[in-house]
Amino acid sequence: MKNIIKNLRIKRRMIATFAAMHLYGNPSVQLKIIGVTGTNGKTTTATLLFKVAKSLGYKVGLIGTVENIIIDEVIPATHTTPDPIQLNRLLSKMVDKGCEYVFMEVSSHAIDQNRIAGVNFVGGVFTNLTHDHLDYHKSIENYFLAKKKFFDFLPAQSFALTNNDDEHGRIILADTKAQKNTYGFSGSENFHGNIEKIDFHGIDLDVNGEKFQTHLLGKFNAYNLISVISICKLLGFDMQKVKEILKNIENYERGFYSGIFGVFDGINLQSFVLIRFIEN
Fold it and tell me: Kind of pairing, strands 191-199 and 202-207?
């Protein structure tokens, strides 16, 4: 009986999702949508990609935990990934405004509830998986399978990018039809990073022999940065310009949830406070 009820709920959600998609004219096919999924790093990764693409001169949309943005118009967010009606309404507005790229946080709840069914993604990225959201998914295996489902349904012409340093990241692309790509710092990934310097001024990073700098802080942001660099390369962006944009993004800018106050002279750490808010 429970399975029957569950299947009825799934069918009802699928009908609602596809009805919303057709109501707004299937807007996702007119956009290049990149989905970002994982426990941590979704917001920073999607926001960085939005800022980079916008600085490169593209008309861009952002869908995420903190806010939704259509070029310069900020729309308050109610969920990490909106319900099908809100989502397709947003995508339709982005089409009307002439957006080319959309960077979208994709939550495990949204995947499990089929909120993103029918959305045409040109790429997807996996950040990491930790023991969160188990109140909903009940087990880490169910949580992982929800994330994996996103990649299983990516089309063959899209790309799938995963964190090779995460144990789940190494297997999450097993059944995807998309072009497989990996990033990380272990040495076996095709976007290989090396942290040359990391301190309270930022990060110096080498990715496949190219040097990048950022004012963002912490090793967690080194992972966010290398995923962003990898996606920019996969999208064919001008990497010289990307380097300059990343170098000039400040740690305290809107959308980045880490901040630092104090002095670090390279040897002695004087009084400081490090604040980091992670969407869980």
Answer: antiparallel
Q: Which pLDDT value is given to residue 13?
A: 61
Side-chain-side CA neighbours of residue 148 (13 Å): 14
Structural tokens at position 21 = 């998609």
73-76/67-70 β-pairing:
antiparallel
Measured between alpha carbons, how far is 149 from 175 in angstroms, rounded to an integer? 9
Q: What is the pTM of this model?
A: 0.85
Report whether 45 contacts 125 (CB < 8 A): yes
pLDDT value, residue 195: 95
- At 142-151, the pLDDT tens digits run 899 999 999 9
Give the pair of three-digit tokens for residue 252: 């305290």
Six token digits for residue 138:
């009940």
Closest to 36 in 3D by CA, of 120, 128, 164: 128
Angle at 249 between CA 246 and CA 251, to 5 degrees: 125
Vertex 194: Cα angle to 222 and 38 (nearest 5): 35
Q: Which residues pair with 160 in a beta bridge?
A: 124, 180
Task: Summarize pLDDT for 203-241 with one digit per residue, the tens.
Answer: 999 999 999 999 998 888 999 999 999 999 999 999 999
